[in-house]
Structure formats: structure tokens, C-alpha cells
């Protein structure tokens, strides 16, 4: 009896785990890009080199964003050094080839994150982080895990050993400014007024504040950093 194979990625073959998005740049000393290059030439050159891809887009920088359809095309893209007579460089997109999801594992996984990630690597998982909560000053591990997938789209489920776990989208906490307490920017880029995170009054920090709690954002009777 041969060695056991690792479970496939939600029932899909492992050759479907590949970088799907690539940035294509012109290699030139004149700071040229693809803005003035014929889209017909680009289309013919890409199709002639790797076959029909899912999409090709001209992005704001003037580079090309190419989405491939298969592992074979992904390998061919990385070997590409020219489109027609135009020298190019190709690299995977820095963010579009991964996504994050959350699982809740009812069975205890009392293992380090690195060991769990190693066990799940065959399912296209690059990183695992357990969600911890703080209670009475103590950090308590939960049964929830944030998984980073080497794929732009989440699978329906993964298998942790014999346990099948549904995958749901990971929604990170919104960025809150520690100066004005508003959402969407950091303290470094804040143009607002220093505001207390406890009472929502401008002009002082929350350290030592004993005033009645009030949220800057919703005007509710809780602090601006409350999760409620």
C-alpha cells in the first residue's frame, strides 16, 4: 500500500493552486509603459506566448495586470521576457494571489500555528493564526483560526485531519485613528483634533479620564474603542 495522499483543496486537484495574477512591466531605459502600446499587439503577443488568458488590464501605473487560467499558463508567464519585440519583466501580483478566511474547529487543535499550517499546506494554505481573546487580563486561545490561502478565491471548506471545517470570509477590524478616534485612517495621517477615546470630548487623551463614556462615531454610551 502506497503512502497516503494529502486531501485535495476542497475536492479540487492540487494543480489548481497557483498564482493567477501577474504584473507585466516594460524593460526600458526611457521609463516607457504600455499606455501607448496597441491593445491588439498585446493581446496577440500574450495569446501567442501562453494561450488565451482570463483577462488583461492596463492599470494606473501603465503596467499590465494579467489573470491566467491554469497552472501551466502561470509557469509560462514567469518565463516570459518579451511581448512581440517589447522586452518585459513578469512577477506575481503582491496581494491578489492570496485571500484570508476564518474557520471554527469544534475539535481541539492544541498545536502551534506553524505545525497546523504545515499540516494544511497541501490544501493551499500559507499561514495560520489562532484568534485569541483577552479576559481579565489573560490571553485565552479560541477555536477560531484565520487562514491565508495561496489562491485569490476562498474554498468552501478545508479538512483538518478528518474534521471538515467550513470557510467564511475574514473581515478585519476597521482601522481606527488613535488621535481623533474616527475610522479609515491612522494617527500618522490624521488632520483631526485630539479626542478622548473614553468620553468623546476634544482636547485630551483617554488616560486618566473618568467622565461618562461616549463614542465619537455613533454617540452611543460606550467608549470609542468598545467592540459593542
What report would you give on this structure?
This is CCHC-type domain-containing protein. By secondary structure, this protein is an alpha+beta fold. Helices cover 13% and strands 27% of the residues. It is built from three helices and eleven strands; from the N terminus they run βαββαβββαβββββ. The strands form three sheets. Strands 2-3-1-5-4 form a five-stranded antiparallel beta sheet. Strands 7-8-6-11 form a four-stranded antiparallel beta sheet, covered by helices on one side. Strand 7 (125-135) and strand 8 (138-149) form a beta hairpin. The longest helix has 12 residues, at 39-50.
Please sum up the structure shown.
GO terms for molecular function: nucleic acid binding; zinc ion binding. By secondary structure, the chain is α+β, with helices and mostly antiparallel strands.
Task: Using brief descriptors, characterize the structure shown.
228 residues, 3 domains, 5-stranded antiparallel beta sheet, 4-stranded antiparallel beta sheet, Alpha-Beta Plaits, disordered N terminus, HIV-1 Nucleocapsid Protein, alpha+beta, single chain, flat
Q: State the separation between the terminal residues, measured CA to CA.
A: 55 Å
Mean pLDDT: 89
The ordered H/E elements are EHEEHEEEHEEEEE
Number of structural domains: 3
Low-confidence stretches: 1-13
Q: Which radius of gyration do the C-alpha atoms yield? A: 24 Å
CATH superfamily of the largest domain: RRM (RNA recognition motif) domain
Layout of helices and strands:
Blueprint: E1 21-26, H1 39-50, E2 55-58, E3 64-67, H2 71-79, E4 82-83, E5 86-92, E6 99-104, H3 113-120, E7 125-135, E8 138-149, E9 157-160, E10 163-166, E11 168-169
Antiparallel strand pairs: 1-3, 1-5, 2-3, 4-5, 6-8, 6-11, 7-8, 9-10
Amino acid at each position: 500500500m502506497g503512502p497516503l495522499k494529502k486531501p485535495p483543496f476542497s475536492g479540487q486537484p492540487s494543480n489548481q493552486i497557483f498564482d493567477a495574477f501577474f504584473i507585466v512591466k516594460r524593460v526600458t531605459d526611457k521609463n516607457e509603459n504600455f499606455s501607448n502600446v496597441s491593445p491588439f499587439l498585446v493581446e496577440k503577443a500574450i495569446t501567442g506566448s501562453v494561450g488565451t488568458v482570463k483577462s488583461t488590464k492596463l492599470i494606473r501605473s501603465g503596467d499590465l495586470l494579467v489573470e491566467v487560467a491554469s497552472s501551466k499558463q502561470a509557469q509560462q508567464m514567469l518565463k516570459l521576457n518579451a511581448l512581440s519585440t517589447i522586452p518585459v519583466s513578469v512577477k506575481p501580483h503582491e496581494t491578489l494571489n492570496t485571500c484570508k478566511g476564518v474557520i471554527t474547529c469544534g475539535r481541539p487543535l492544541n498545536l502551534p500555528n506553524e505545525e497546523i499550517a504545515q499540516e494544511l499546506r497541501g490544501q493551499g494554505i500559507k499561514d495560520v493564526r489562532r484568534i485569541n481573546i483577552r479576559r481579565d487580563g489573560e490571553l485565552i486561545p479560541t477555536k477560531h483560526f484565520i487562514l491565508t490561502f495561496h489562491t485569490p478565491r476562498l474554498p468552501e471548506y478545508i479538512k483538518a485531519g478528518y474534521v471538515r471545517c467550513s470557510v467564511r470570509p475574514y473581515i478585519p477590524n476597521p482601522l481606527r485613528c488613535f488621535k481623533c478616534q474616527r475610522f479609515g485612517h491612522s494617527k500618522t495621517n490624521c488632520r483631526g483634533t485630539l479626542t478622548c477615546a473614553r468620553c468623546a470630548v476634544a482636547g485630551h487623551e483617554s488616560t486618566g479620564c473618568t467622565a461618562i463614556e461616549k463614542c465619537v462615531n455613533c454617540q452611543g454610551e460606550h467608549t470609542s474603542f468598545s467592540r459593542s
